[in-house]
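Re: Re: ligand-bound prediction request (bumping)

Still looking for help on this. To restate: I need the protein modeled with zinc ion bound, output as structure tokens. Inputs repeated here so nobody has to scroll up.
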Amino acid sequence: MYTYQCQVCSKVHEELIFFSDYENDNIPQVCGADTYEQGCGGDLYRVLRAPGTHSSWAGTGKHGVNGYFSKALGKHVANRHTEQKIMESRGFVCEADLPKDRWDTAVETQRRRVTEQDKNIETYTEALKSGKTKEEAVVEAFTAHDAVSGKLDETWGKNE
Ligand SMILES: [Zn+2]
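Reply:
Sorry for the wait, this slipped through. Here it is.
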């Protein structure tokens, strides 16, 4: 079972997806057209199931006479507290609620690693061009200092 939420009507769809479908990227993308229940035709995004993770479902609805309409749940609930309880009991975390900097940090770390790798390779290539042996070039590019300080591991990864 995978959970998808519509970006337009916020309806939550729970879909049974076979592994072969998943492998072939045959996953629901359109609210209604690709889902078991009817929908509005809006784009779907995957809702991650992360038991125990708190999320900010608050701020996604309107207060009314008959309680509160939860866009996340697609139905009326008594109040936000109830909504939150239901969402958490289902183990939902909205992808949009994940901290943005988690992605940014990953990208930045990767960019820095690639820059460092380029520098190592450049030094290595230059050393070879200047007539040094491969062993000497390696020593020059991947300095003992970098290895001892853990910078090499950080740059290239321990298992690469
Ligand atoms: Zn929809």
